[in-house]
Design brief:
This protein has 618 residues and is α/β, with parallel strands linked by helices. Helices cover 50% and strands 11% of the residues.
Length: 618
């Protein structure tokens, strides 16, 4: 029994023909699962190889054998994470509006209000109604259609989703239903479970990604292009340094302001420090870097991604870790213990074993900020002088281009996408590639595949757009500096040198995958085509978190090719593998590509881009 369990968990490598070999070496008929109720179902129906009862019995056995709920369970979990984030963000916006607090991004508020059909003149009434609209959609039952999706998503995609029967209901209810389906002796139809994955992908993308970004913009300010330092060099030992990890930037709104108050500075100076600095790590650090133009006094810079967090702590110059979500690795716990670094968790979903839990409460935010500041000062006093510093002042660089968003990039191009479209049409930029998602310690090692794939893509004149922990490794390697143009192909290099931009544009946290979707849909709308027709590909080369799989399902629902360096939890089901890698092209236009080699992956993605260009006659 133990051997059978181990065999069922094994990841099967790709065969020479690019397909997954049959599990346990069995020879099986090429069969399809029958289902009903939508165009998605009818497109998946295929004739059985024989019409005998034996064939029908084999099909039923195949259904049972193919049951592989791990992928749906992971996607539901990942989607739930994003819905948790957008829910808290909307609540924080609503409560800020109710107390008439500061709204830094009024332009984003106007944009949201226009999309939602909200016309109130008072900005605070408008902000509260925007937040309420988001929350109302999140809380709908699964059987009630979400309203905002039709107001936000691209019309041709909505039409296709309706044809396929994958328009989601309430986002939280969709997560609930997905989890239920994965329970024992329930759903045994891999196609039906993949249908749920696409629904979850859509609600993840619209709410967890796109809307979280726009709500953050209202509260925290819109991104602005600038050159900024990145890497371990950003850590200044003369300050009390706080490493922040997670995804929920709005939790830090009050604390960010209080850390630069005269009262806080006086307290820091009393114990021998110049003041306080926030050191960015993981996606909340990327989001703070994205908006760094608004926070130059408190923010030191983005030091690194999920696995870099251990090295950041090992410098000895971090005095506290504030975490509110993943990717806060459990591996930091013994390091914090050894180096006397205080850990405080601001959301119980991110509670670490040896961390103090102080759940964020908007109503008590001022008191909580004061308590946190005092606790961090105590940590500084207890550890500084007794813990050796091992700074890495040469790590990273001082001039990474940051602050890239759909708004700032469009403004840079003169307020319209025409210059980028013309560069694509002329072939000076062959295509666009979104290198997104996590980093992991496999697929070559920490950041290895992501960085090497990015180099391969830009050498082929493909402009790379990044979002997520992968951005941290790519920026620390210097690929987001203007000088990185030397690594690009001749045509892309000429474009970069002319515009003084890097060949890799950093959109920030994994949440910013929603910003990439906005860029893609606006370009598609200007061209009058659907998203699958664009010379655009995605890669989550070193995915790790379940959120990355939910992101990937959004990409597939958008109709985009999705490259993964490692297979997700589907290799136990040949039907699921075939649907994702082959038949998804008939359904949404997307497809999954599994390849762990940077050059081979770049070859495949480049060929797809060339085919898309041919389809557009460019």
């Amino acid at each position: 029994m133990q051997k059978r369990r181990q065999a069922s968990r094994r990841l099967y490598p790709l065969a020479s023909d690019g397909n997954f070999p049959s599990p346990r070496g069995r020879t099986e008929h090429k069969m399809w699962i029958w289902t009903a109720g939508s165009l998605l179902s009818s497109l998946l129906q295929r004739s059985l190889p024989h019409h005998s009862k034996c064939a029908e019995r084999n099909l039923r056995c195949r259904c049972r054998y193919d049951r592989n709920p791990q992928f749906l369970r992971a996607v539901a979990s990942g989607s739930g994470c994003y819905i948790h984030i957008v829910e808290n963000t909307a609540l924080n916006l609503k409560k800020t509006a109710q107390i008439k607090g500061e709204l830094k991004g009024l332009k984003s508020l106007e944009h949201l209000a226009e999309m939602f059909g909200i016309t109130d003149e008072d900005v605070y009434v408008k902000a509260e109604k925007v937040a309420d609209a988001v929350l109302a959609d999140l809380y709908k039952p699964e059987y009630v259609s979400a309203e905002l999706i039709e107001k936000i998503a691209y019309a041709p995609r909505i039409k296709r989703w309706k044809e396929l029967g994958i328009m989601p209901g309430g986002a939280k209810a969709e997560v609930f239903k997905g989890v239920v389906k994965c329970s024992t002796n329930l759903n045994s139809d891999p196609v039906d479970m993949l249908t749920d994955c696409l629904k979850l992908g859509i609600s993840t993308g619209v709410y967890g990604l796109t809307l979280t970004n726009l709500l953050n913009d209202v509260l925290l300010g819109q991104p602005e292009l600038r050159l900024a330092p990145v890497g371990l060099r950003v850590i200044d030992p003369d300050y009390i340094n706080i490493m922040i990890t997670g995804h929920q930037h709005t939790i830090f709104v009050d604390l960010q302001e209080r850390l630069i108050s005269e009262e806080a500075k006086t307290k820091a100076q009393a114990v021998g420090a110049k003041g306080f600095k926030l050191v960015g790590c993981t996606c909340v650090g990327q989001d703070l870097q994205l908006r760094g133009a608004h926070y130059t006094e408190i923010f030191d810079g983005h030091a690194g991604n999920n696995y870099t967090s251990e090295a950041i702590l090992a410098t000895g110059a971090i005095d506290a870790v504030l975490s509110e979500f993943n990717c806060t690795l459990p591996g930091i716990e013994p390091i914090c213990e050894e180096l006397k670094i205080r850990q405080i968790c601001l959301d119980d979903v991110a509670k670490k074993a040896n961390a103090e839990l102080m759940p964020f409460e908007f109503e008590n935010r001022e008191e909580q900020s004061s308590i946190i500041i005092d606790k961090i000062i105590e940590s500084y006093k207890e550890r500084r002088g007794s813990v050796a510093l091992h700074l890495m002042e040469e790590h990273g660089n001082d001039h990474t281009l940051t602050g890239v968003s759909e708004g700032s990039l469009k403004s840079f191009l003169g307020g319209k996408w025409t210059p980028l479209i013309e560069l694509l049409a002329s072939g000076e930029i062959k295509g666009l590639a979104g290198v997104v998602g996590c980093s992991n310690l496999t697929a070559g090692g920490h950041d290895v595949l992501s960085v090497e794939l990015t180099k391969e893509l830009i050498s082929r004149d493909i402009l790379v757009l990044t979002a997520g922990c992968s951005s941290g490794g790519i920026e620390n390697c210097g690929l987001m500096t203007p000088e990185a143009a030397k690594y690009a192909g001749p045509k892309l290099r000429a474009v970069c040198e002319k515009l003084n931009i890097p060949p890799v544009l950093n959109f920030g946290p994994c949440l910013a995958i929603g910003r990439l979707e906005i860029v893609a849909t606006e370009i598609a709308a200007e061209l009058g085509v659907d998203l699958p027709q664009l010379p655009l590909v995605l890669s989550a080369a070193q995915w790790l978190e379940e959120q990355a799989l939910a992101d990937g399902c959004f990409g597939l629902a958008l109709g985009l090719p999705l490259h993964l360096g490692l297979p997700p939890f589907v290799t136990g089901s040949k039907t699921a593998v075939k649907v994702l890698t082959e038949d998804m092209k008939e359904l949404t236009g997307g497809q999954v590509i599994i390849n762990g080699d940077a050059k081979e992956s770049a070859d495949i993605l480049e060929q797809i881009i060339l085919e898309k260009r041919q389809g557009l006659h460019i």
